[in-house]
Amino acid sequence: MAAEGESTGKSKQKKENRVGRDAGAVDNDGEFLADDLETIPTAVPKLGDGYRQRQSGTGDQLAYAIGVAGHTLTDEDLGRINTRRGLLTLLKRKEVDVEEVRKTLLYEQELRALQVELVRLQRWVQESGQRIAILVEGRDAAGKGGTIRRFTEHLNPRAMRVVALPKPTDEERGQWYFQRYIRQLPNKGEIVFFDRSWYNRAVVEPVMGFCSKKDHQRFLQQVTEFEHMLYEDGVTIIKFWFSISKEEQAKRFEARRQNPLKQWKLSPVDEKAQELWDSYTRYKEEMFSKTHATFSPWIIVKANDKQSARLESLRYVLNLLPYKGKDQAQIRLTPDPNIITRFHRKMVELDF
Fold first, then answer.
1. If DSSP codes are grouped into helix, strand and coil, which group holds residue 121?
2. Please, which pLDDT band fits residue 21 given cuts at 50, 70 and 90?
3. I need a surface site. Which of 130, 165, 265, 289 has the fewest CB within 10 A?
4. In whole angstroms, how far apart are CA 80 and each of 29, 75, 84, 89?
5. CB proximity list for 8: less than 8 A, separation 6 or greater
6. 3-state secondary structure of 90
7. pTM of this prediction?
8. Average pLDDT over residues 109-132
9. In 3D, which of 147, 29, 45 has the Cα closest to residue 100?
10. Looking at the predicted structure, is the pLDDT value of residue 284 above 50?
């Protein structure tokens, strides 16, 4: 019996050690190999888009994202923790993916530091009377709305707006196409985020048959001149395209169907996105080739990883604009070139 108990104990210890090593961040004693946790804030992260529902594994090695039912930390649990080792032991007991928690905490830390810089940026925009228009485009479920929320979370709403226009009214259909967007352009000292913009007519509308071929071609002829007039008048235009793979888009659609809090995001247009993937690609590439300009370039964001896409988009804007106090930033502002790229006409593969 003693031998059997000893064997069971060794097996249990071996399992715990294996889980720690598989996480890639702890040693046999449950300690982090790197000193990365020293600067991580102690606040418990909220359940949100940054968490994955389940991590890969086999048999007894399954690990879960924190927040999944049965794998949460209660107030009582947190009240008993007073050391790093205690926290790691608790996470392993709850079968939580330690590396995923570490990644999310680092993400939250970087996001907060970048948002502090965004507050400084907005103050500079107000004081200097800048007008900033940030256009966020991309395929359905590419993470546009989530990125805009991270941009605006701590900004002063009196000097910032998010524009997400519905389909045009009968009156607007009889107007010049750009007219309803002109009303939404930034005023002096203001930042405006366009959650989809006038570029609806470049991709979505022709793909879905919402405009004629003539309307589409007229738009492509006029849009560069329209943006050049804005540029000459002092408006800074930043154009993001969030690029995801077809497989990732399918996964995100399915996640929306399964999540009752996100089902509202699914629309008839979304339902056809997979079926019309190649058509979207053709119109998107034509849009890039005809509307990319030095004064309003297209910035491609590889968005299969939501967290990286959000952080690097924030970095791009902060790095681009010469706001006051930028040289005192305590975090890297240069965007990762593996995630943020400027469109160039020799690019072959834009969705990966």
1. helix
2. very low
3. 289
4. 19, 9, 12, 12
5. none
6. helix
7. 0.76
8. 98
9. 45
10. yes
